[in-house]
Amino acid sequence: MENTVILNNGVQIPKIGYGVYQIPSSETERCVTEALNVGYRLIDTAQCYGNERQVGKAFKKSGLARDEVFITTKLWGGRGYADTVRSIDSSLKVLDLDCIDLLLIHEPTGDYLEIYRAMEDAYKAGKLRSIGVANFLEDNFKRLTANCTIIPAVDQVETHIFRQQKNLRKLLREKGTVHQSWSPLACGRNGFFRNPILTKIGAKYGKTTAQVGLRFLYQQDIVIIPKSTHIERMRENLDILGFELTPDEMTELQALDMNRSLFGWW
């Protein structure tokens, strides 16, 4: 696959993916089908989204080979080892897959050391191609990596121009863990789509504020999973490869970092 990042176990993950958070199950199959048709090859879902089954159906109907599409899902509500084993098997069944490309702990709750140990065993058994975490900030990430045998391949956290996760990114680089962004467009909060710096840079390249914000992350090898239910926006979010931000433009955008969540979750 082109435009990929190599994970710490040699697996390649596309740098631009399609997220299905808050897409109703009744709309998910159509949306994922359209995303695959316009060129996305990474689909990101989760157990708590309630649309894993529709993601699996869209993939099966696409006619694409299994190794052409990278599918991520996330565990939800696990307490320990045994229920994690059941949960993994449930996602495999619902997605109708023999192997999940990337499984993440959705958040640092429950006995996440035991949850992760079950994921390590599922990885060794061939049920998972790679494993990682989501919403693990510095303290939880350090605790996990001090107690696991397989370093997480990915940490998916809130990341956009207003929360750039610079300290966490340094830690992830040290551990060889890929930084993945959820909500790379900040859900439009804090005036994202009207931001004067994004607007100015976009006008220079003939790009939208969204494309500039996505390119800023992409250029730092941060994997992005923007979401839209409209095919025109799907195409737009994918179309960020034909320009490159200059060092001065990157510096301007780095200065927008507020170093806090816009969602109040982690």
Structural summary, described in words:
- With 266 residues, this protein is an alpha/beta fold.
- The protein has one domain (4-191, 222-229): NADP-dependent oxidoreductase domain (TIM Barrel).
- Helices cover 40% and strands 14% of the residues.
- It is built from 10 helices and 10 strands.
- The strands form 2 sheets. Strands 3-4-5-6-7-8-9-10 form an 8-stranded parallel sheet. The protein has a two-stranded antiparallel ribbon with strand order 1-2.
- Strand 5, helix 3 and strand 6 form a beta-alpha-beta unit.
- The radius of gyration is 18 Å and the shape is globular.
Summarize this structure as a short list of keywords or feature phrases.
266 residues; alpha/beta; TIM Barrel; eight-stranded parallel beta sheet; 10 helices
What's the structural domain tally?
A: 1
Task: Bin the strand percentage.
Answer: 5-15%
Low-confidence segments, given as residue ranges, are: none
User: Can you identify the CATH superfamily?
Assistant: NADP-dependent oxidoreductase domain
Radius of gyration: 18 Å
Q: Trace the largest sheet across and list its strands.
A: 3-4-5-6-7-8-9-10
